[in-house]
Amino acid sequence: MDASLCNISDDIASNSSLVETIVQWTTFSIGFPLICLSIYAMYFLIRADHIAPVYVINLLIADLIQICMRPIILSVSWKFIATMIEFFGISASVGFMVCVALERYLVIAFPLWYRFRRNIKYSLIVSSFIWVVPFIQIYMFHLTPTSEISLILFAVSLLIPFPLLVFFLVGTLKALSVSISVPAVEQRRIIGTLALVLGNYTVLFLPLIIQYLISAVTCQKDVMIGTIFESFSPLVDPLLYVFMRKGAKDTLAFPCFDKLMGDQEQSQVTNTMTITDSGVEGSR
Fold first, then answer.
1. Which of 41, 50, 116, 227 has its CA 20 to 30 A from that of 247?
2. 271: nearest Cα among 281, 260, 279
3. Residues with Cβ < 8 Å from 35, sequence gap 6 or more?
4. pLDDT tens digits, one per residue of 19-78
5. Which residues have a Cβ under 8 Å from the Cβ of 155 and sit 6 or more positions away?
6. Residue 64: which of 94, 92, 36 has the closest Cα?
């Protein structure tokens, strides 16, 4: 009986390792070129609008760090170092997700304050702080007496941004409900950004947080479902490019997204012109 249970456990561990290997290589093969293409597209976006989406670019760089560690984690000799670097990228990604959501919230809730206070110098200072935080976290984790406490601390630190992301989305929706100066296309772009960030965090990061808490409480290190979910997070962040752009002429990359957003904007302009023309004819 004990031998059969051991064989079943070995089979489960073997299948879990196989699934993890497939997911790691799949996300690396898709995510690496996709993130590089997104950063390349952001370059053309900066040239067109002369405004640098600092937090989105840093988020993509954090995702690139995670993706580059995927093949290395599968090797035994470099697994620990690669895992620490991946934790660094995950923590930075969550921090920049909060920054992206905060920036979109300020655009709607405090437009005048944001317009006069917006400065790339402040964005770079905040970004530098976000990059320093993971170093502090990793140092604190090494000071903890057990790995279980380290997992709990890391899970709690990843859980802190969740209420902030919810607040930014709800606050933006409330501000948009009473705003009449924000065009419909811009509203969809801002709401889409916040919904994408919150959805990415809820669906792909929360399972990882739950996994860390379960592993710390039960002392079981073979719970991998959260890791598998989080592996797909860097594939979602490049979609933020769609909500950063303003027109099909702004960039040469992602032609499918350009056509989609361009058609929406053209439809909005056509509807506005139709309403205007109808009003003019009625006044006559």
1. 116
2. 279
3. 60, 63, 64, 67, 234, 237, 238
4. 878 888 999 999 999 999 998 888 777 776 656 688 999 999 999 999 999 888 877 778
5. 209, 212, 213, 216
6. 36
Q: Match 């769609």 to its residue by tokens.
A: 242
What letters, b where the CB count within 10 A reaches 16 and e where it falls short, cover 211-247?
A: bbbbbbeeeeeeebebbbbbbbbbbbbbbbbbbbbbe
And the tokens for 202?
Answer: 């809820």
The token duo for 83 is: 């895992």
Round the CA-based radius of gyration of the chain to a whole number and report it: 22
Rounded CA separation 72/62 (Å) = 16
Among candidates 161, 165, 159, which has minimal Cα distance to 209?
159
Q: Rounded to 5 degrees, what are φ and ψ at 222?
A: -100, 10
Residue 144 has phi, psi (to 5 degrees) of -70, 145
7-21, 78-92, 202-216, 254-268: least confidently modelled range? 254-268
Decide: 34 and 241 in contact? Cβ < 8 Å.
Answer: no
Helix axes 79-109, 161-177, angle to 10 degrees: 20
Tokens 């930075």 found at: 92
Instruction: Say whether 199 sits in a helix, a strand or coil.
Output: helix
Q: Please, is 74 exposed, middle or buried when counting C-beta atoms within 10 Å of its C-beta (0-12, 13-18, 19+)?
A: middle
Q: What amino acid occupies position 42?
A: M
Rounded to whole angstroms, the Cα distance separating 64 from 234 reads: 8
User: What's the CA gap between 49 and 74, in Å, rounded?
Assistant: 41
CA–CA distance, 201 with 195 (Å, rounded to integer): 10
